[in-house]
Amino acid sequence: MTTAAGPPTAGTTTSLHLPAGTAAAGPYALEVTPESAGWGHASLRVLELAAGGSHLLDTGPDEILVVPLAGSLLVECEGETVPLAGRSTVFAGPTDFAYLPRDAVATLRSERGGRFALCGARARRRLPVRYGPAAGVPVELRGAGRCSRQVNNFATADVFEADAVIACEVITPAGNWSSYPPHKHDRTSDVETELEEIYYFEVSRGPEGQAGLAYQRVYGTPERPIDVLAEVRDGDVVLIPHGWHGPSIAAPGHDLYYLNVMAGPGAERAWRIVDDPEHAWIRDTWAAEDVDPRLPLHSADSPRPTDFPEPTHSPSQNGALRS
Question: Alpha-carbon distance 200 to 194, whole Å?
């Protein structure tokens, strides 16, 4: 981040790590907007609904991905009804989700209650309401050895059509490192796209319900300083306006989940990154190692104790736009 005049001001753990509850607003357990983050594009809200609860959502200038973190949901928008089967927890496998366009009003209802992420980005185009089935989410096993992680690519640029928002989920088994080697995406070039990023964390509990923890590192350059080393827990957020980010470190005994929400100023919706050259060599070691046998942690057909089955048809599926 920069001031209006003078040298850049470094973002720090204090300004960019939002512990659970500190960014709550109105009906939202978490609310990060472009205005509150001090940037221009990416947003994230977490909505918690009691059993039988409902919420009226005005998308305003943002396109929104409605992603169940725990529980199921009925989404009604512009004459379309989209039932989301959801999941019991973020560690129960990929979930189905709904896409809502900018300048729309939607009603969200949950018979049994739950927790739902609203991943957003300022949008130029207005696209139709759509449904993304859990069975259509590509699950990628990335890295090897202690750098093994699982990526649920539900709304990446090559998977799901949107105007600006890019989103995915990462599951890191206990004791492993992910988002490693550290990488960045804060310039526009043939090898990099400029994207703001939000990391939202959940951490699995111990065998007797003990709360877990994890760590997140973000650092910059002399020209664009940033310095974050955050101990993160359930519901925490780290904002990444620019700079190298990683590793994300899962403590022994506690699997780590994070939701990544990205958007940027460019007309091209793409995720291109560059590795920190001091650490990029680690990728070459993965060829001699096996992927962690604990992965995939769960599959897309994990049992779903929810209110709705996945629809056999919907407004539109798999990101395809209606004609």
Answer: 20
Query: 239 vs 11, 25, 178, 230, 310, CA distance in Å?
Result: 9, 17, 17, 11, 33
- Pairwise CA distance, residues 130 & 310, whole Å: 14
Using one digit for the tens of pLDDT, what is the confidence trace for 289-310? 999 999 998 754 444 545 555 5
Distance of alpha carbon 263 from alpha carbon 235, whole angstroms: 21
Dist CA 253 CA 11 (whole Å) = 31
Q: 16 near 232, Cβ under 8 Å?
A: no
Q: How far is CA 50 from its chain centroid?
A: 23
Say which residues have a Cβ less than 8 Å from residue 284's Cβ, sequence separation at least 6: none
Tokens for 151? 């990526």
Q: Which residue has the tokens 């403590």?
A: 251
- Asked if omega into 222 is within 30° of 0 (cis), the reply is no
What is the set of domains in the chain, with CATH numbers? 11-288 (2.60.120.10)
Taking only the tens place, the pLDDT of each residue in 88-105 is: 999 999 999 999 999 999
Helix, strand or coil for residue 69?
strand
Distance of CA 166 to the CA centre of its chain: 8
